[in-house]
Design brief:
By secondary structure, the protein is an alpha/beta fold. The chain is built from 6 helices and 5 strands; from the N terminus they run ααααβαβββαβ. β1, α5 and β2 form a beta-alpha-beta unit.
Length: 188
Amino acid sequence: MPLARRLERLTPTAVNSILHEVRQLRADGRQLVSLMRGAPDLPTPGHIVTAAQQALADGRTGYPDNRGEPTLREAVARSISRNGGPEYSPDSEILVTSGATLGIHAALGAVLDPDDEVLVPEPVYDAYLSVIIQLGGRPIPVPATLDNGRFTWDPDQVDAACSPRTRAMLINSPWNPTGTVLDNDEWL
């Protein structure tokens, strides 16, 4: 069976190519410090290991709710509210995914139609571009500038990049791949 034509727009990501090379070098015995992806290289805290072991012992080995564990969604809603954010319903407004890329895919999948545009700050994590393309959208780059060691973008450039086809702007904080954490006054 032939694959969907939209997949022809996808290209191998630079991140995955480099990650493959790092794995091969490590397999060959090279000592490397990888600055790739958001995978932590610190040991998992003991209380998390204990909670995971207890969940297994309690038989919690099946699939969770598609929206994420209810108790986790409730904790997220409480944390947002406690830290000055709005009140969210854990049942209808909180979604827990196994990584940002899956969450971005779910969010964009809910709003994009074919040929809709998504503004993406550059530099951008290339997997996010793949998500937009897979959904039939068009990524529109908005170049960022490095200002005092932080990446930022000019609101005028964001406005200039908008068109009648613009449906979303990808805002990710910490901003992958730069590590920049947006201040409250930087949210558009």
